[in-house]
Design a protein that fits this description.
Blueprint (H helix, E strand, L loop, with lengths): L9 H5 L3 H8 L5 H27 L6 H33 L19 H26 L12 H29 L11
Helix pairs in contact: 3-4, 4-5, 5-6
């Protein structure tokens, strides 16, 4: 049998005692963190433009491997920037305050069903994507493995592969725990004679 919750007026619902009010208001301390991430994203935009200009200026002198490495670097920057947007927008919406973008034409679809669990899974998948691009760049560079001036070593490739595998296992674990914790509880119906 469900016990009805006591009704609370709007004025009573908004009024909090001092300590809960301070604790609840402390979420606004995260705003400078999100603003800092916006500054970091601006830095990534400058890095992207710098790399792109370097690619265009040297397109006639670079070989295919050099172009591929720069393009993979550009993709890496874009994926990190996407991750930043997810953290900034999703984190602010989840932990600080609603953005109220319901009727905005550019409202991201994923934002309508984001919570801390979904955000963790999306972040884990983003990190795996970034790690995949980085690992792909390393595999492209393995052509120079063992040559003088090589930027990577066999041990470095091994460790990067191990770390990437750990990221994948972590993401699977996070997804599994999120799925278990958000699964609907079974409803027990009394036996009817």
């Amino acid at each position: 049998m469900d016990v009805p919750h006591p009704t609370v007026s709007a004025a009573e619902a908004i009024t909090l005692r001092p300590l809960p009010q301070i604790i609840f208001a402390s979420r606004w301390l995260q705003v400078p963190l999100y603003l800092g991430l916006i500054v970091a994203q601006i830095v990534y935009v400058f890095l992207f433009i710098k790399e792109l200009v370097g690619l265009v200026q040297n397109v006639m002198t670079f070989d295919e491997q050099q172009i591929m490495l720069i393009v993979l670097g550009l993709i890496d920057v874009v994926m990190i920037s996407n991750l930043l947007v997810m953290v900034i927008v999703g984190g602010y919406e989840t932990f600080v305050s609603r953005l109220r973008l319901h009727r905005h034409p550019d409202n991201p679809e994923w934002l309508s069903h984001v919570d801390s669990g979904v955000l963790k899974v999306k972040l884990a998948m983003g990190i795996i994507g970034i790690s995949s691009i980085s690992l792909l760049r390393t595999f492209v560079e393995t052509r120079s493995l063992g040559l003088p001036g090589a930027q990577i070593s066999a041990q470095g490739v091994l460790w990067q592969t191990i770390i990437h595998s750990v990221f994948i296992l972590s993401a699977l674990g996070i997804t599994y725990v999120d799925r278990i914790s958000s699964a609907p509880k079974p409803v027990h119906h009394p036996n009817v004679n």
